[in-house]
């Protein structure tokens, strides 16, 4: 299902990206519309898959996840069976917040959130015990300068 979005839809999406817990009345007021058209537009964008979910953002450090590692993975394996096992291993690990397959010298990059370096090592040991990996480089983020899930609408 393809849906065209206009400027009002973009305003609604912008409001939702900032705080999806706001009431329809608040969003409608901010975007200069009324409640029913805003609700109908949100419903249509959900049905079209533009809005995929609503979540809350948690403070990782406040919850004890002080270490964020970016893990660069090179593999010499590119068979379908290996890829399936690799994806299953990643999906089974809640520490992996993001995983991307890349073009270039690095095959995959992972964003891994853990309490500390020892927890990262446990993650790493478990991962390499499940799938053969040619080379792994872990980069510890010293400071998060910017982090957002908001798209530039």
From TrEMBL:
It comes from the Bacteria. GO terms for biological process: regulation of DNA-templated transcription; response to amino acid. It holds the Pfam family HTH_AsnC-type. Keywords: DNA-binding, Transcription, Transcription regulation. Residues 5-66 form the HTH asnC-type domain. The keyword Transmembrane helix does not apply. PANTHER family: DNA-BINDING TRANSCRIPTIONAL ACTIVATOR DECR, LEUCINE-RESPONSIVE REGULATORY PROTEIN. InterPro entries: ArsR-like_HTH (IPR011991), AsnC-type_HTH_dom (IPR000485), Dimeric_a/b-barrel (IPR011008), Tscrpt_reg_AsnC-like (IPR019888), Tscrpt_reg_AsnC/Lrp_C (IPR019887), Tscrpt_reg_HTH_AsnC-type_CS (IPR019885), WH-like_DNA-bd_sf (IPR036388), WH_DNA-bd_sf (IPR036390). This is ArsR family transcriptional regulator. One of its GO terms (molecular function) is sequence-specific DNA binding. One of its GO terms (cellular component) is cytosol.
